[in-house]
Amino acid sequence: MGGMMALDAELLEILICPACQGGVRELEQEQGLECGGCGRIYPVRDGIPVMLVEEASEPTPGAQKD
Ligand SMILES: [Zn+2]
Questions:
Q1: What pTM, to 2 d.p., does this model score?
Q2: CATH architecture of 9-55
Q3: Residue 57: its pLDDT value, please?
Q4: How remote is the CA of residue 49 from the centroid of ligand 1, in Å?
């Protein structure tokens, strides 16, 4: 019996974005956690969230001005 296991809700509550300390939410269509603050998307590998800024996908390249 396969199937993906959803991340534990309690785990999600304690996870924060290391870049902005925002809360994260689980994406439904892809494996990942999206920060509600800065929009970075953190990968989930083997069911374990990888909360590292250098591993995160940055939101909409080009949207930020320098
Ligand atoms: Zn963030």
A1: 0.77
A2: Single Sheet (2.20)
A3: 94
A4: 14
